[in-house]
Write a structure and sequence with these properties.
Structural class: alpha/beta
Bound molecules: iron/sulfur cluster
Largest sheet: 6 strands, mixed
Number of helices: 17
Radius of gyration: 23 Å
Strand content: 5-15%
Length: about 450
Amino acid sequence: MTEKPLLVYPDRTDIAVSNLAVHWFFNAFNEFEPDLLTSDSKVGIFHKRDINKTPFVFVSLSYGPDIIKFAKILRNSGIPLRKEDREKGMFPLFICGGIAALLNPEPLTLIFDAVFLGEGECMKDDIVKMFSMETREGVLDHINALEYAMTDVKPDARQVIAAGGSFFVSSNEILHKLGNCFGNRKIVEMNRGCTSRCRFCAASYAYRTFREPDGKKLMDFVKKTAERKEGLALMGTSLADVSSFDEILETCAASGCTVSLSSLKITEINEKRALLLKKCGVRTVTVAVESADPDTRQKILKNITDTDIFNAMEILKKHNLKAKIYLIAGFPETDLQKEAESVIELLKELDKRNLLHDVTISVAPLSPKPLTPLQDAKFMDKKQYKNYMVALKKGCSVFGKRIKLDFFSYRESEIDYKTGFLKGADLIDLINENIEKGDV
Ligand code: SF4
């Protein structure tokens, strides 16, 4: 008998169906009738599969706090968190993957039967084999022979990545019917890795080298979606580095198909693209400045100048596109008060150039990530973040409603940071401490 898999994405359903890994899973295992359990569904959304009665449960962890949300799902289902407390054979095999699992896999072996490191395309055939195996012991032997699988008896595992041009992930038809956070547009993966190497970001250090998907499949999907005017959400880190990026915008603009996009590097914003984005119905462009201080940007290898920022803002304004400026607070060797002052200075300069209209400033605390050069950086304390917020709010009051300040939750960032570094039982303690609080 062939078993049918259940994928758990421990967040709201609209967030789950906006995630590329979930679409990959449903596309890859379509013939096995996969089911999806989220934080707001008690049983599988499509086949009412029960987490207690499904032999194979795959868990996608894309963000640190997801492990706490998953623990909540286990508790609500009467399943012990620690693997050692689950009687052998009485509960499903729990296998996790995703970027959060890759960043700190060791403590997860206390919870999961296996942690898979890397990209699904390299694992698909091995996973399919599991579905028809007769015994739990047989499956575990099979898993322990996989190079990318980390288990409590096999601590050595190697991340596997798919070659450029060999992968392609787009909206799964069944999932698409549930809508998503991108105005229900069809989603498509544009790239993996990044061409930049900003020192705080896992995009190039964890996902490794910049890779594009299968170009033909990508363009075929874009053309079909554009013809049907279904709307397209472009997902990736280095969108304009993708060889067909401009062609994709041109195709959508010519067909009247709307586009949403994750973000653009400041140096990627030019007149032609701004015009195309406008034609594709884009209203706001997220520009990642990271730090308003040029010296800090240089230290973190964010290679953009103030002039690059002014030029990009000029172009966006000319084409009536709103800007959402993304900043990170608390880089190493920086004084937070000075950081706040440099943000105000930058905004004043933008104002002087008449470029400050309806701009959102989005700020998050630095959450150092394993595998990156800044992995040993300190996570700021709450008081520091609060003082920074107060200084920024005060300094920005002169701009009135022309700017909107948006601060990311300190607590959520702190949990994200801790889940990346805590080892062994310390991670279990963090989960148990936070499981009741319900604010992640
Ligand atoms: S911050 Fe952006 S540009 Fe820099 S490495 Fe990460 S994804 Fe790439």
